[in-house]
Every structure is written in C-alpha cells, then in structure tokens.
Amino acid sequence: MFDLAPPPAAVPSATPAADALEAEEAALAAELASIIASGGVAGDAPDSRTILRIDVAWPGRLHLPDGQVVALKVRNISEGGVGLASDRPLPAATVVNFEMDVPPLGGSGGATLVAGVIRTTYAVAQGSEILCGGTWQSPPTGRALVTTWIERLRP
Question: What does the alpha-carbon distance between residue 39 and residue 57 come to, in Å, rounded to a whole number?
Fold first, then answer.
C-alpha cells in the first residue's frame, strides 16, 4: 500500500535513555509497517467528523471577493459542513459566498437555489480536481431543505 523508505542508518546514542527511546520508536515503526503490509488498515475508516456528511452530486458556485465565480460540484453535505470539488483553484482558509442548486424533494421540477456563506478549511489537489471543504451557513429556509435531504439520504 505504501512504499516506505528504509529507516536511516542508526547513529550512536549518547545516553541509555536515548537508546531506549530509539528502540521504542523502531519497534513502533516495525509494528505499523507490519499492520500496513498485512492489510490491517481500513480503506473506509470512519469519518472523524461529529456530524455525518451525506454524499451528493449537486452543482454549486463560490463567489470570490474579486468577483470571480467558480463553478463546482458539491460532493457531500451536512447541516454545518460541505465538501466541494472543482477543476479550478479554490481558496483555503477564507470566507466566501456560496450557493448550491438543491434538487426538488419530489423528483420533478426545478432545483432550489440555496445561498449562504462558506468558511473553507482546506483545499487540496487530487488528480485533476481541487477538493475543498469547510463549514457553511445559510438562511433557515435553505438549511431546512438541506436538512430534509440529509434525513432522506442518511443510511
């Protein structure tokens, strides 16, 4: 799974305590390498978020302070968090206006525009996409529609 580089050559330690610490670190590294090699690491480890995000594929947009509008895809959503993907750079650690097109609950009709604000917490490149996540807020009517979708899609 991982191509681990061999550990650096041992450097003589100055004290017995340093020797013991070095031995503990080596033992831990060997144990982790063994677990990884055996496949004992879950590929679908549970999310560390306290609020479950639901996978979606909704169109959305960020309105940047300089006037640019970045089209994106809403990948997942919770009542307070959102995961986004775009083929254009997305700002990390900033507050920007955000909107998404939430599909109708009944399956027919047009999407509802839910506008709000997002505080991005990260942006990383993954292949040809830029993934971004953060916390979001919207007026109560938009939040209620998203909450209904979350309840409907929750496993």
Answer: 31
| Burial 27-59, CB ≥16 within 10 A → b, else e | eeeeeeeeeeeeeeeeeeeeeeeeeebbebebe
Which tens digits make up the pLDDT trace of 31-47?
Answer: 656 655 655 444 443 44
Buried b (16+ CB within 10 A) or exposed e, 81-113: bbbbbbeeebbeeeebebbbebbeeeeeeeeee
The structural domains of the chain, with segments of one domain joined by +, span 1-45, 54-153
In order, the DSSP letters of 95-152 are: EEEEEEEEPPTTS-SPPEEEEEEEEEEEEEEETTEEEEEEEEE--HHHHHHHHHHHHH
What CATH class does 54-153 carry? mainly beta
Query: What is the pTM (predicted TM-score) of this model?
Result: 0.66
